[in-house]
Amino acid sequence: MTPLTHTPVMLDEMLAALAPRDGGIYLDGTFGGGGYSAAILDHAACTVWAIDRDPAAIARGAALATRYPGRLHMLEGSFGNMVALLAQAGITTLDGVVLDVGVSSYQIDDPARGFSFRADGPLDMRMAASGPTAADLVNTLPEAELADTLYQLGEERLSRRIARAIVAARAEAPIETTSRLAAVIRAVVPPSRDGIDPATRSFQALRIRVNDELGEIERALAAAAALLAPGGRLVVVSFHSLEDRLVKRFFAGAAGRAPGPSRHDPRGHAAAPAPGFALLTAKAQRPSDGETARNPRARSARLRALQRLPETGWEARA
Does 113 reside within a domain? Predict the structure, then answer.
């Protein structure tokens, strides 16, 4: 047995929301270290299909599957493509889906993956083994586009100052390591009072763009909703406001809670279609104080859950 070395976030809350049952078929769309998959399989005599685009995670899953013969199945790819990946395996409906959309601890803690500024490594940040790296973006994007990326995906208010510094630095030599990029950012962004490293938001923005994380989440939410059988549940754990905003908006629409059109809009007089889902979480659940004390990485986690109602004709909308 390969031991799990990461700490799954909000594990008890996830199990309570997903409510795995014997004989059910579940999807762990973000396998990572396998913590959620193992907990689901331990909780009920069910089957789990697990997706990850990181080849290293797929290898970890193959080792973990030996603990659950015939019950854990790995699929390599993006969770936004879950419908096609599952269809190839003959799976068209699910009793539950769980998505932990934060970056894996394995990825953050491996300097060779280039996700973190806390240890020097190549400026990579790719969750999969293909496509442009963060170094490609940092060294080729026009200054204005780079600034927009940092502002929109990192919510970095000093984005233009940072972009200007990056362009000046790369003119001297390509920026190819995490430590050099972090140093460039720290030279123009003063330390914050809350102790957050000045490079945090910029690294977040680059990682999101390299992996199209927000696009993946939007595709995955619509796909998961379409795959759920009546009574099936979708549980999503997110880690920053951009992610949680997408989840909150999608869940509200699926549950018929989205704001309606203006009373001056003719569409406001039409009968609203019956919602296909019910919210299981009136607002996002937060980790307990005890969990955040044990695992500081959990402090920004937010959990939301949704359940499909009996058939109403609702169709997932991207």
Answer: no
194-231: b (≥16 Cβ within 10 Å) or e: eeebbbbbbbbbbbbbbbebbebbbbbbbbbbbbbeee
DSSP letter, residue 235: E
Q: Are residues 131 and 47 in the same domain?
A: no
Short-list 1, 43, 211, CA closest to 124 = 211
Both structure tokens of 257: 């809670």
Does residue 94 have a pLDDT over 80? Answer: yes
Specify the pLDDT at position 297: 81
User: Among 66-80, 107-121, 154-168, which stretch is predicted with the lowest mean pLDDT?
Assistant: 107-121
* Statement to judge: residues 222 and 102 lie in one domain: yes
Each residue of 234-245: pLDDT tens digit?
Answer: 999 999 899 999
Reported as a pLDDT band with limits 50, 70 and 90, residue 91 is very high
Give the domain-ending residue among 192, 211, 230: 211
Distance of CA 237 to the CA centre of its chain: 8
Domain range for residue 258? 11-106+213-308
The beta strands (E) that lie in the chain are given as 25-28, 47-52, 72-76, 94-100, 228-238, 277-279, 302-308
Query: Are 73 and 86 spatial neighbours (Cβ–Cβ below 8 Å)?
Result: no
Residue 238 forms part of a structural domain: yes
pLDDT digits (tens, 9 = 90+) for 120-151: 899 988 887 778 999 999 999 999 999 999 99
Residue 272's domain is classified under what CATH number?
3.40.50.150
